[in-house]
Amino acid sequence: MSAPDSELDKHLRALFGGLDTGADFDARLMARLRAESQTDATERAVRARQQERARYRRAVLELQSWRRSMLRLLTLDTLGVAFLLVVAVVTAWPRLSRDVMDISRQYGPYIAMLLGILIAAVPLLGMWAEQTRRPIRLL
Amino acid sequence: MELVRAERGDEAIALLLPAFRRKVFGLAYSFLRDREAAEDVTQEVFIKVWRALPGFDGRASMSTWIYTIARNASLSALRARRPQSSLSDPEVMDAVETVDPAPSADAVVDRAALLRLVDQLPTKQRQVIMLFYMEEQSHEEVSTMLAMPVGTVKTLLHRARARLSAAAGKTSATA
């Protein structure tokens, strides 16, 4: 390299050698990073709240499904109980008074059927309330 | 690697800053020729690095990765900013002159003239000249920063020096 080139090198080094950011660059950057961290934390909190809400919705749906299945079981159970009641009444009826026997001969099946329907209607009403989102007081 | 072990991103950045701050700033400055814009881009680069650091897979070296981010950020800033400032603009002159705390009047004149000459160089030559003299004359570092072969850096540097020498000769002859 010739002498003028060395001089040129010297000038260029002096010109660009000390080029650097401002003194407060690091502090400003770290402050921005802290601010970004807080923003990230807020976003994480929002995401967590959304996930929690979704989990709650899933749990409510599962609970509703469980209640519906319980109501179905109860309905079958109640129908069974009603049937047994009818059978029991019909079986016990001959031992009661003749007047009652006479009445029962005429109206007994209807009364038993009505009773059975009433007993069976309770869970059916519950199911209807569940479907129409009314509060259920049976469970 | 120390950076991978650093669980908190800001700790990783605190480790990266001393090693890369000047280089990233120099690279941004070589594109933008504006101190304030280069600082903004440098901040953006480190924030991008901080965000992307957990996903850094180490396929490329850390410096190559950071310089790629810096080049892309600088080009985006350059595209977003029109018209371009020039190295010989008074603001740029002031910014570069702050490097020397107390330059003599002759030195300021020389610097102004030299800056104008550098400013007139083709973009790549100007970038190579700036980064080369900023980065303590490392051809390899400049080639990594600008993503060009070392040979190309050497050629560009040689041509830029030749141009500057010729132009400086003309300037001194006419003075």
Task: Tell me about this structure.
The complex is a heterodimer of chains A (139) and B (175). Chain A has 139 residues and is mainly α. Chain A has helices at residues 3-16, 25-92, 98-131. The mean pLDDT of chain A is 79. Chain B has helices spanning 2-5, 9-32, 35-52, 62-80, 90-97, 105-119, 123-134, 139-146, 150-174. Residues 95-105 of chain B have low confidence and may be disordered. Chain B is built from 9 helices and no strands. The radius of gyration of chain B is 18 Å and the shape is globular. Chain B is mainly α. At the A-B interface, helix 1 and helix 2 of A face helix 2, helix 3, helix 6, helix 7 and helix 9 of B.
Backbone structural class of chain B: mainly alpha
Please tally the β strands of chain A and state the result: 0
Category by helix and strand content of chain A: mainly alpha
Largest sheet of chain A: none
Helix segment tally of chain A: 3
What portion of residues of chain B is helical? over 70%
Radius of gyration of chain B: 18 Å
Q: What is the percentage of strand-forming residues of chain A?
A: under 5%
**Which protein chains make the most extensive interface, counting residues with beta carbons within 8 Å of the other chain's beta carbons?**
A-B, 26 and 37 residues
> Helix coverage percent of residues of chain A?
over 70%
How do the helices and strands follow one another from N- to C-terminus of chain A? HHH
Query: N-to-C terminal Cα separation of chain A, in Å?
Result: 97 Å
Mean pLDDT, all residues of chain A = 79
Low-confidence stretches of chain B: 95-105
The low-pLDDT segments of chain A are: none
Radius of gyration of chain A: 42 Å
How large a portion of the residues of chain B is in β-strands, by DSSP E?
under 5%
What's the total number of strands of chain B?
A: 0
Shape of chain A: rod-shaped
